[in-house]
Amino acid sequence: MIKRMAMMTRRRDTSMADFNRYWLEVHGELLKQAGHVHRYQQNPVLLEIPCGVDTPPPFRLDGVVELWFESEAEMRMCFESPAGRELPVDEERFLSAMTRHDVVDAPQPDGGFKLLLVASSRPGEDGAKALGERLSMWSEALGGSAQASVFNPVQALLSRPNLPVEPVAASAFLQFVWTDDSAARRAVERSSFQKLLHAVAPEFAKLGAYLVRERRVI
User: Fold this and answer.
1) I need a labelling partner for 150 at 20 to 30 A (CA). Which of 64, 74, 101, 142 fits?
2) For residue 43, what are the β-bridge partners?
């Protein structure tokens, strides 16, 4: 199985509501028409959680897309189909930036709401390892309430030169999954989680924390 994740930033002249509507009803439908996709999930951002004191947001992030393909051949057929070739053109209608990441696949259950931790490494350091080694610490700080956790180290980056801005690339993604919105919000509001987040943030070039809502499209 091949998995891709992409960090998306909406156009500044597009409201969050319009971005989410277009992403689901227009762009999402276009990708469905392209076919050859095993699983397609959209993750619009509900809340950005500060990782430090008086620091700018680490990423301009409005949503993350997750795509699974059965093989390289299926992925090529998706993006080389008529609808697939239209996807980059359509991105310009509602995005200012997108960075695609080829990641290590891991089993992912359907949830509903997720804490998404996005890390980028300092030069010469392994940010993916630093994030993954703390899996038990993150889980404990969240009160152990998540139904599952998913760790996706990044293997390769794919830029989108057709878009005007390139967001900071990630080294790894770590996700904690809940089926209930209120449970997810209580977990990320825990003081133990906030303290851990602020304590480890300086170890990364960038560390972002986002509460997102899952939308399973395919």
Assistant:
1) 74
2) 64
Distances (CA, A) of 101 to 19, 21, 119, 205: 21, 24, 13, 17
102: burial class by Cβ within 10 Å (0-12, 13-18, 19+)? middle
**CATH number assigned to the domain comprising residue 16:** 3.30.70.100
Domain that holds residue 71: 2-216
Residue 23 CA to residue 27 CA, distance in Å, equals 5
Total domain count, the chain: 1
| Residues whose CB is less than 8 angstroms from the CB of residue 154 and which lie 6 or more positions away in sequence, other chains included | 101, 102, 103, 128, 169, 170, 171, 172, 173
Give the whole-angstrom CA distance, residue 3 versus residue 23.
19
